[in-house]
Amino acid sequence: MPNYTTDLSFNFNNPTKIVFGIGAINDIGPEVDGLNKKRAVIITDEGLAATGIIDRIKELLGKRCVGIFSEVKPDTGVYIIDRGVKYAKGLDADILISVGGGSSIDTAKAMAILLTEGGRLEDYQGWQILKRPLIPHIAVPTTAGTGSEVTYVAVVKEHDRGIKLVFGDNHLIPNTAILDPELTINLPPDITASTGMDALSHAIESMHSLQRQPMTDGLALQAIRMIFNYLSVCVENGKDIAARGQMQIAATMAGIAFSNAQLGIVHAMAHAVGARFGVPHGVANAILLPYGMEYNMDICGDEYAMIAEAAGIDIHKKTKREAAEMAVFAVKRLTEEIGLPTRLRDVNVTKDGFAACAENAMADPSIVYNPRTPSGTEDILKLLEKAW
Ligand code: NAD
To answer: How far is it, in rounded angstroms, from Cα 252 to Cα 172?
Structure first.
């Protein structure tokens, strides 16, 4: 157990109302009423719009739904936010309901900034810039991964520069998250796997972040336990609704953990690689996670031993170092077991982009919280080489 020192102090923020259960989506109308709003716009992507989920939510909302914006693309984009804002303004929307994965939820968060404050999205990039509450937002996640339904972060791709803009502000945290496992049962195995590894990377990075504390550790360790128990079950049999529910809860818990503890070098690299090469966020995290852990190993032996235990490994007769190494091994084994690629070269990443990726990773806000400070781009380049 790591020693917390007497100078431990922290803020813990989790304002989102979480509504969980099979059929929880039936509460969507009353949740809008509870926020005293009448003109909801649904934010989603084309794929989901075709699944029947959106029709059902539209029907449940009845007259409260004034429009559906279904132009979200993976990783969203500044131009998508601009289009969504124009659409929602034209309908005089007074609440946003995001339905989908992190791309749809983050689109609604970024739209909320501009619908409330106006101006250019790029100008709000950074940390705790917003001064007042935004237009309300109910998030309905249909992947179990990003945790965006409870986080203070939005990530939006800027296509011209091939980078991800990161926004961090408590005003971005959704008012309500509706977690209904039924909405995730048709998530294909590959996206189930990659989004689940995104959740695992949130939990593990929360455990090695400089800003970790006992409350975030509690959430992260329980999320790790649940992910090691249920992710492969969901990949194997997507219709296992109990396992789907456990993964949704785990992803949300990991989201609360990292929204308070912050992340580290794995996300800094994953954002850079994802934006440049179009690697899905969860896949980039899954590939880079063991290398980020190895990089931090000398400092985080205690934490990684706790992770090994949460992953179901008997560490009883192991040294701390052995246990920590077993945690890294467990992450690699899970990635393979659920059929995800384990190398950057497997996902069309080419070495000619490494220099730019290393620069962008060093400029990513997540790097600040990594327990080991990289000497410069050289450390990142070495890790990318290893992961290639
Ligand atoms: P996504 O939102 O891009 O969705 C991936 C695909 O899954 C889409 O094609 C979508 O149509 C499909 N899909 C979603 N739910 C489905 C369902 N139930 N059935 C069938 N298909 C379904 O993927 P994601 O991994 O959830 O989100 C990734 C984005 O989230 C990235 O932009 C990443 O940077 C961001 N992110 C944000 C945070 C945060 O805290 N704000 C944290 C992590 C990641």
So the answer is: 16
Q: What is the pTM of this model?
A: 0.96
What whole-number distance in Å separates Cα of residue 167 and Cα of residue 184?
27
Using CA atoms, how far apart are residues 42 and 162, in angstroms rounded to an integer?
27
Ligand 1 atom 42: residue of nearest CA: 146
Instruction: Tell me phi and psi for residue 67, to 5 degrees.
Output: 180, 160
Q: Is the pLDDT of residue 164 over 80?
A: yes
Q: What is the mean pLDDT of the chain?
A: 96
Question: What is the DSSP secondary-structure string of 168-208?
Answer: E-GGGS-SEEEE-GGGGTTS-HHHHHHHHHHHHHHHHHHHH
Interhelix angle 189-208/281-296, rounded to 10 degrees, is 30
The architecture CATH gives domain 17-184: 3-Layer(aba) Sandwich (3.40)
Any residues with Cβ below 6 Å from ligand 1, and which?
45, 47-48, 51, 74-75, 100-104, 106, 142-143, 145-148, 151, 153-155, 183-184, 186-187, 191, 195, 198, 281-282
* pLDDT at residue 2 tops 70: no
Separation of CA 143 and ligand 1 centre (Å): 6
For 18-74, the pLDDT digits (tens) are: 999 999 999 999 999 999 999 999 999 999 988 899 999 999 999 999 999 999 999
- Of the candidate CATH numbers 3.40.50.300, 3.30.70.2860, 1.20.1090.10, 2.60.120.20, the domain formed by 189-387 belongs to 1.20.1090.10
- Domain boundary assignment for the chain: 17-184, 189-387
